[in-house]
Every structure is written in structure tokens, then in C-alpha cells.
Amino acid sequence: MRTENRTEVIVVGGGPAGIACAVTIARAGREVILIERGSFSGSKNVFGGAIYAKPTREIFPDFEKTAPLERKNVIHKYALLGDEDATEISYRNNEDDNDAVSYSVFRSKFDRWMADEAEKEGVILITETVVEDLILDDGRVVGVKTELEEYYANIVVLADGVNSLLAKKVGLRNNISPYDVAISVKEVIKLDKDKINDRFHLRDDEGCVYQLFGGSMLGMLGLGFIYTNKDSVSIGLGVTLNELVENKIKPYELLDKLKQHPSIAPLIKDGELLEYSAHLIPEGGYKCMPDLFADGVMIAGDAAMMVNNMHWEGTNLAMMSGKFAGETALHALLEKDYTAETLSHYQERLEQSFVLKDLKTYKDLMDVMHSRSASFLGYFPQKINEFFKMFTTVDSIPKKEKYRGFIKSIFNDRNPLELFKDGGNLFKLLWGILK
Amino acid sequence: MSIDEKLFTVKSVPDKVSHLKPEAGLCCICDSKACTYVCPANVYEWDKENEKLIVNYENCLECGACRIACERQSLGWEYPKGTKGVKFKLG
Ligand SMILES: Cc1cc2nc3c(=O)[nH]c(=O)nc-3n(C[C@H](O)[C@H](O)[C@H](O)COP(=O)(O)OP(=O)(O)OC[C@H]3O[C@@H](n4cnc5c(N)ncnc54)[C@H](O)[C@@H]3O)c2cc1C
Ligand code: SF4
Ligand code: SF4
Questions:
Q1: Same domain, yes or no, for A198 and A347?
Q2: Binary contact (B82, A130; C-beta < 8 A)
Q3: Which of B12, B19, B79 to mutate to test the interface with A (most CBs of A within 10 A)?
Q4: Which residues contact B55 (CB under 8 A, 6 or more apart)?
Q5: Looking at the structure, do residues A155 and A298 belong to the same domain, yes or no?
Q6: Residue of B nearest to A68 (CA)
Q7: CATH number of the domain encompassing residue A267
Q8: Of A360, A392, A421, which residue constitutes the final position of a domain?
Q9: What range defines the domain where residue B39 resides?
Q10: B89 and chain A in contact, CB less than 8 A
């Protein structure tokens, strides 16, 4: 057996999944190398976004004391944007409920902080290094090949994010389809703290998470978002790749148009662009997940398609899956057995936790949304806005006539079969979630 | 604001060689030119006159959208070397 460049566990990818995995292993006193292609953790990473307090505390119990956090989110807003109008819902959590909290962060700061903490706890971090391939011996994964060197280990954990070229190379996953990923573009726009607080109805370091449906993406499978940071707001959108090709439109054109919507433009008025960025979101969910383990290898986080796109959750699933992979690796090291059979504990842990339970709950979501995006993300948002327009217009027409007219209009602009399909799909979705 | 102006805000260290390698022959017979729509950095332009895909790889944000969307599944795509490529300040 090789002794040089040898360690117990190699983790590929220094994002939330990889860091959570590596720190779990290091804390138990085992040797672990974390390899990240960026010049530091986070330098290649982009999200909306917010990290969730409770799952993050499971990895870094005191992170709130020293991590670079932007704002503590207390307001959650949802807008159905028509072409020009909008219907909004806002929920404000006024309790000092510590578990419900999420924080807006910048990944190049937050991931870097997590990686620094992991190093303090014994993780050996190698940056600026792309893992190009896995080394196999008799079908077992026994190491990794980087640009310059080869490293060997008993177990390799793939936490290399949505593109996971490595999972594909060892045949754990098939090609991803343009229907199963969204491209997200994002702009961080500098604004005074006071302006942010006024425009979003916030106090001090309170934050707002704003989800946008429709608008420039009416009828497309896409969602917009705004997060507030200390002195800036992050605005962006994610749209599935097939929509862009079918509609012959570029993602930044959709974002430009979204920013001009009359309900959105005032929120970012006079702001200055600090950084533009883009990243893929794995959206396919449960049905697109790869095999999660094989001899000598496990896959965690985005690389395993673990994103709950209904709730904008990804970092939490990444961290928890990373942690479970780390615990499974520790168990395997104790047993000195790195076969698929031992590593299958990883899958069991995931099945018992919210990670796979939630992914299963929403397993039909994407199918339904793909087949009904024109109605659920186009027609109905517009119709809801039309309803409120009718409801709020004072025009001397008797109300009964107006309501009847509105209901009639639904049957006029949609044929009964389509309405039936809408209803059927909604039922299918709800049934899938609640059963 | 144009996409080029947006891209000015991104810090990046381009390599001397491209990490994006389209298959010229297949690009010619590709109907959708999907890469030209999905790319968030406008890296790809179809040069009608010369029937050739122009690849401004220096602007690449390393998202992977073109690789997945490529109609012919023929786009050679790798990560830039560890010392190269984008370096988000915020992300
Ligand atoms: C626009 C957008 C908004 C989002 N909003 C939210 C949100 O608000 N809240 C939330 O919880 N989640 C959100 N997500 C999802 C979340 O960002 C991801 O689920 C999460 O980052 C996954 O973590 P990961 O560690 O699995 O992968 P990543 O964070 O992608 O980390 C993978 C790491 O591996 C490195 N790497 C890749 N390949 C190699 C290689 N070959 N060699 C070496 N290193 C490699 C990368 O550089 C990277 O650092 C959002 C995502 C996007 C794109
Ligand atoms: S989508 Fe693929 S085949 Fe078509 S032009 Fe782009 S790179 Fe070439
Ligand atoms: S990886 Fe993303 S940014 Fe780079 S060329 Fe492809 S689509 Fe464009």
C-alpha cells in the first residue's frame, strides 16, 4: 500500500457539504484532507441567499458569535408579479425565535470563515487545486488525481457541487438534463443601510427575504429573489435552462427586465452594482439523485442534487449530508471496511432525516411545474392580479356583475380541459406532499 | 447596463488557453445554438459569416450551464486551473 500522499479521508470541494464533512472527521481525531479548486473556499460560490441557523449550529454551534453574517431575516415576502402590477404577501416574525432564524451572507466570506474554522479543528485544506479524476483500483475509489499530484485515501467524499464532473466520471450519475438545472444570475447592489431599512420596513440589522414569481418570467419555470445585506441588496433569478433555449432569451435580460418592474425598481433605485455573478441550481430533486455511495466513495450536497427548491434550501441539506457522510466515514474507519455495504449507512442516515424525507415529499414538484408552468407561473399569477384590480376598482358597476364577469372570464380564457388538468396537477402535488 | 459592464465587476484571472472547447463540426449543424442563450456571461456568439462559434472564454463564470444545455452534448468543458478563473469577492 502507498504511504506517501496518503490520508484517511479525502473530501473534494470546500463548500458547505465538504466543510461539514471534513470538520466532522477531524473532530474525531481522524486525518482528513479537503481539496478546493478556488483560491479560498467561497471564491467560486454563489447563492441567493440565506443560511439557516439551526442546521448551521449543528456544524458550528457558536457560529453566530464570529461568522461574517449580514442580516437576520425576520420578514418573508412573496410577490406575484403581473406585467405591470403585483400582489404581495408579507410575513413578519416578531418573536425572538432563535431556531426559526436565517441570516443573509456572502458566500466568499461565509464559506471562507467556515473553512478557517475547519482548519483550526485539524482539517488539512488544500486550495487552488482542481481534482481532475478519481483513482480506481479494481472498481474501488482509492484516491484522487489533481493537476499536480495524486492523493490516496481509504474513503473519498465528493462534495464538488452541482456540476460534479467526478460523480459522472465514476458512473455514479448520468448526464444532467437542461430540465433539471436552473441558471441563476445575481447582482449585489450597494445601498445605504437607512435606505434599505426604509424600503424594506426593517429595523437595525433585521433582514428581508423576498421571493418573486412571474414578472419577466411569466409562464416560465423560474423564480426571482431579493435578499437584504448590511449595505447592499442581492437581487437575482433562477430559470431552468430549457426555458431560455425555448424562449430564445438570455438570463441577464430576464433579470434586467425584472429589475424594471414597477414594484421592484423603487427598491433598488440609485443603487450601484458591486458584483454580478452566476451559478447553477440543481432542481431536479429526488428523481435525479445519483447513487449516493459505492466502494470507497460517497456523494453529498449539490453534487447529489440535494436542493429543496420549494423552500430555497440547499446549504442546510449540504451541511447535514456532509455531516452524515463524515459520521459514516468515521464508522467505516473504525470497522476498517470501506465497501459499499458499510458506506450504505450514509443512505440510511439520510433516509431517517429531513434530507431525504423532504426531497421525497417534493419529488413530483418539478414534473408538475414543467408541465404546468404556463398556468401556475403565468396565467394564475396574472389572474390573481386581475382579481385584485377588479376588487379594488370603484366604477359604479354592481359588484355581483363584476364577480360573475370575473368567474366567467376564467372559463372563457381557459378551456375546461386545461382547468381540469390544472386542478388534477395541483391535487397530485398536494397529495404527494401530504400523504 | 450592458452585460460587458456587469462583467467588469467580476474579478477574474484568465488562463492563456481556453477551458471551453466546442466541437466545430457539430456546432455548424446545431439548430438551437443553446449555449448562446443560456450563458450568463455572453461567452458564446455565433459568427454567421464564418459559420463558427466565437468563445470569449475569459468572461466565463464557470457555472456549467453551456455544458448541460449543449444541444449536441459535445462541448468540451473543464474547470480552469486552480490558480485561474473567477474569484468572487461576494458571491
Ligand atoms: C442563486 C442561488 C440561490 C440559492 N439560495 C439559497 C439560499 O438562500 N439558502 C440555501 O440554503 N441555499 C441556497 N442555494 C443553494 C446552495 O447554494 C447550495 O445548495 C449549496 O451551496 C450546496 O453546497 P455544496 O457544498 O454541496 O456545493 P457548493 O457550495 O457548490 O461547493 C462545492 C465546492 O466544490 C469546489 N469544487 C468543485 N469541483 C471541484 C474539483 N473538481 N476540485 C476541487 N474543488 C472543486 C467548488 O469550488 C466549491 O467550493 C442557492 C443556490 C443558488 C445558485
Ligand atoms: S449548443 Fe453545443 S453544438 Fe450547439 S453551438 Fe453551442 S456548443 Fe455548439
Ligand atoms: S460555464 Fe457558464 S459562464 Fe462559462 S461559458 Fe459556460 S455558460 Fe457561460
A1: no
A2: yes
A3: B79
A4: B18, B20, B22, B43, B44
A5: yes
A6: B90
A7: 3.30.9.90
A8: A360
A9: 3-79
A10: yes
Q: Which residues of chain B have pLDDT under 70?
A: none
Residues A327 and A223 in one domain: no
Task: Give a yes or no: residue A121 inside a domain.
Answer: yes
A22 and A159 inside one domain: yes
What CATH number corresponds to the domain at position B49? 3.30.70.20
Q: Is residue A23 part of a domain?
A: yes
- pLDDT for A2 equals 58
Indicate the burial class of A410 (C-beta count within 10 angstroms; 0-12, 13-18, 19 or more).
middle
- Alpha helices of B1-91 — where are they, by DSSP H? 3-7, 24-28, 34-38, 65-69
My answer on whether A350 and A305 are in the same domain is yes
**A39–B89 CB contact, under 8 Å:** no
**Ligand 3 contacts CB of residue B41 (under 6 A):** yes
pLDDT per position as a tens digit, A354-403: 999 999 999 988 888 888 888 899 999 999 999 999 999 999 999 999 99
CB proximity A173 to B under 8 Å? no
Ligand 3 atom nearest to CA at B63: 2
Mutation pick for ligand 3 pocket among B61, B75, B78, B86 (CB with most ligand atoms within 8 Å): B61
pLDDT in tens, A93-121: 988 777 889 999 999 999 999 999 999 99
How many domains would you assign to chain B? 1
Q: Is A133 on the interface with B (CB under 8 A)?
A: no
